[in-house]
Design brief:
By secondary structure, this protein is of the alpha/beta class. The protein is 33% helix and 15% strand.
Length: 204
């Protein structure tokens, strides 16, 4: 069984995250067993970042994000809170407990390519997964950075899509809903996250 693993800070999750999940759901599908989720998504605390929302709030926003995908991908993609860890290697251990016969593809955005070699147990992690890198418009993937990952044991694929240059950091800093889905935008307002003005939600 092939399982796509996609963890993100989701602070907040954006339409770029939604595009990635939607695409993964179209790729990691078993029509013979549609009840089995093949895309495992989770929110995690990134040790390299300071977060603006709690882990539970970010998990809830990810669930809303997935619910808004049309046509629905709920048969194939789901948020797994149990996978959340500051260390992706620990997430993989938990994933193996859920899917004993799983073949795992770790999905990351291009912005994490230079950060990954500094992750806890990076070489041990990369030896156990296929690495899928999702390009991002405005974020160049350098061959030298890929070589570093390859030297650590990575088996690399580049996803044939490029997500829009939407940044969770920009949303937090600009207190803007641009790049958020309607239900996630409403959630941020209801929970007073990121100091987003109420009037900015009127367009939704």
């Amino acid at each position: 069984m092939k399982i796509a693993l996609f963890g993100t800070s989701a602070d907040p999750p954006t339409i770029a995250h939604q595009e990635i999940i939607s695409w993964l759901a179209s790729q990691f599908v078993d029509v013979a067993s549609p009840q089995e989720h093949r895309v495992a998504v989770w929110a995690a605390d990134n040790p390299f970042k300071i977060h603006g929302a709690s882990l539970e709030q970010r998990s809830q926003m990810l669930e809303l994000l997935i619910e808004e995908i049309k046509p629905s991908v709920n048969k194939y993609a789901q948020v797994y809170r149990s996978l959340s860890s500051r260390r992706t290697l620990e997430t993989l251990i938990t994933a193996r407990q859920i899917w004993h016969d799983g073949e795992f593809t770790l999905t990351i955005g291009a912005d994490l390519v230079t950060q990954l070699p500094r992750w806890y147990g990076a070489s041990e992690l990369l030896a156990q997964v296929q690495l899928l890198i999702v390009p991002r418009i405005g974020n160049q993937i350098e061959l030298s950075d890929l070589d570093i990952l390859t030297d650590l044991g990575a088996k690399i694929e580049i996803a044939p899509l490029a997500t829009p240059p939407i940044s969770s950091t920009v949303i937090r800093n600009n207190h803007s809903i641009e790049g958020l889905t309607p239900r996630v935008a409403l959630y941020t307002q209801q929970h007073n996250l990121y100091q987003i003005p109420t009037h900015s939600l009127q367009s939704y």
